[in-house]
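Re: [ENG-882] Designed sequences occasionally contain unexpected residues at chain ends

Forwarding the minimal case from QA. Structure tokens:
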């Protein structure tokens, strides 16, 4: 897990309460907003990668490494179907 995502998740799940509740709530709301932005960016990248994999199926190049043109292993494709390498 990336360090920034880890920090976001820690902020997201930080316990609430105490004298500075409003500040903590505001911090949680900020962290929540940043996490949602991060997840949407990740979704967009993943969606693009999947659409490109579907295009490779249409063009008949799916499962071929883009760097060395060798076949990508079945196990790897099953784990990460949108992989390019
Ligand atoms: Zn390769």
């Amino acid at each position: 897990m990336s360090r920034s995502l880890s920090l976001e998740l820690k902020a997201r799940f930080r316990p609430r309460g105490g004298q500075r509740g409003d500040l903590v709530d505001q911090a949680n709301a900020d962290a929540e907003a940043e996490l949602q932005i991060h997840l949407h960016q990740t979704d967009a990248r993943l969606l693009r990668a999947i659409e490109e994999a579907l295009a490779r199926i249409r063009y008949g190049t799916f499962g071929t490494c883009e760097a060395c043109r060798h076949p990508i292993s079945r196990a790897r494709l099953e784990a990460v179907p949108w992989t390019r390498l």
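QA comment: On inspection the terminal residues look reasonable. DSSP finds three helices and no strands in the chain. Proposing we downgrade this to a documentation issue.
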